Amino acid sequence: MNQKDKVLSLLGLAARAGRLASGSTPVENAVRSGNACLVIIARDASENTGKKFRDMCTYYQVPFCTYKDRDALGHAVGKDYRAVLAVTDEGFAEGIRKELTVRENHA
Predict the structure, then answer these.
(1) Alpha-carbon distance 53 to 75, whole Å?
(2) Do the beta carbons of residue 59 and residue 33 sit within 8 Å?
(3) Lateral strand order in the sheet of 84-87
C-alpha cells in the first residue's frame, strides 16, 4: 500500500465497526434489504460477479464502484480475499466516495 490508502483504511474501520457486508451472499442481502449505502466490486472479480452486482445495484439504486483487487479488499477488512463489499453506514460510504472522487480528479 503506497502511503496509507484512505479507501482501504475506511473499509477496515467500517468492518471493525460492523458496518460492512463482505462476500457475495451478505452483500446481496444488504442490497436487497436496502441497507447497502455503497457497493465496492474488486477490479479482478469474475465477469459474472461484476455484472451480477452492477445490475443489482442499478436495479436497487445503490451506488457502486470498482476498486483495487480481491486481495487488497480482503486484506483491508481482515479476510482472505473479497470480490465484493457493501458499506452499510452512510458516513463511511460518503467518506469513501469523497476519497474516490479526489483520486479521479488527480489521476
Answers:
(1) 21
(2) no
(3) 20-22, 84-87, 38-41, 64-66
The grid coordinates listed for 25 are: 451472499
- Number of other CB atoms surrounding residue 60 within 10 Å: 14
For 84, the enclosing helix (H) or strand (E) is strand 84-87
- Are the C-beta atoms of residues 32 and 60 closer than 8 Å to each other? yes
Separation between Cα atoms, residue 70 and residue 73, nearest integer Å: 5
89: which 3 cell numbers?
453506514
In 3-state terms, what secondary structure has residue 98?
Answer: helix
- CA angle in degrees (0–180, nearest 5) for 90-94-97: 135
47-97 per-position pLDDT tens digit: 999 999 999 999 999 999 999 999 999 999 999 999 999 999 999 999 999
Q: What is the pTM of this model?
A: 0.94
